[in-house]
Amino acid sequence: xxxxxxxxxxxxxxxxxxxxxxxxxxxxxxxxxxxxxxxxxxxxxxxxxxxxxxxxxxxxxxxxxxxxxxxxxxxxxxxxxxxxxxxxxxxxxxxxxxxxxxxxxxxxxxxxxxxxxxxxxxxxxxxxxxxxxxxxxxxxxxxxxxxxxxxxxxxxxxxxxxxxxxxxxxxxxxxxxxxxxxxxxxxxxxxxxxxxx
Length: 197
Description:
Elements: E1 9-16, H1 19-32, E2 43-47, E3 49-50, E4 67-70, E5 77-80, E6 91-92, H2 100-111, E7 114-122, E8 126-127, E9 131-132, E10 137-143, E11 148-152, E12 155-157, E13 164-168, E14 174-178, E15 184-191
Antiparallel strand pairs: 1-13, 2-7, 3-6, 4-5, 4-9, 7-15, 8-14, 10-13, 10-15, 11-12, 11-14
């Protein structure tokens, strides 16, 4: 039997959210707005927090932010998109104020130093690029299927939609793929204090 090392996936103990409430709140939000797709196929995002009183902080390239990738056969690492000062994202977007997402945001802020918090969509039968981010990510899967996995370096792991919270070491090369026929939606937060150091 093969040994799998999941050291880059940290399931947070004693922290779980109500998956039914999450799905209901997601349905309510999706009746009001669509996912933003900032020039990336099969990907979408909805920001939950913003720089105080700055609606531009949740538009355009601010949805994605800076990352590094190995884009071609040269094997050369290249930087993409713009740097984001994650620490400035401290205000809930008004449309989320009276939702279960606000409760979750407040609970997470008490335990973690957070940057941007987003709902991220990965469409069916698609994958992200092989890339790394400036900081780890906190995941709360809301809608998923067994064909969805996160791959960090050479280790793949399915994150179930059961209300649990997992922090992933996105400072290493990784991707996410959705091999199913249903959209995958996670609440994803940038974590500004790296638990993997």
